[in-house]
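Lab manual, section 2.4: Encoding a predicted structure.

Procedure: take the sequence of the chain (124 residues), apply the prediction step described in section 2.3, and record the output as structure tokens. A sample record is shown.
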Amino acid sequence: MVATEKLLWGTSWPIEVLALDGSLVAITGSATILLSIRRKSDDQFLDFNDATFKAAGWTTREQAMTEVDATNAAGEYAYDLDTTSVTNEADDDLYVFRVRDSAGVAKNMPQVGEIWSDGWVKDL
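Recorded output:
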């Protein structure tokens, strides 16, 4: 996952991954690359349906990522998290981003990254 700027609530957080099969060939055309976001302080997951962190009862706990460009960026998948719609964010907290392939084709997954809100990227 890539981030190059200070990440603040009220902005868009770009999340990108590269999906590779067992032969290290880029996977294109997949709809099974899924993102989940967990707030570390209370282990609540973001429900992408209503942009609320919850301990249970999610409608959409994992969000499908979109392929960037199968020809010019083969295997790259992205999701822009619009944090302006998140209803119960917590400042100065650690957020864990996890990307997996529910079909099991991508052999370099799951991929995990961490971001501090209102801070610099801690560990990608």
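Check your result against the sample. DSSP finds no helices and ten strands in the chain.
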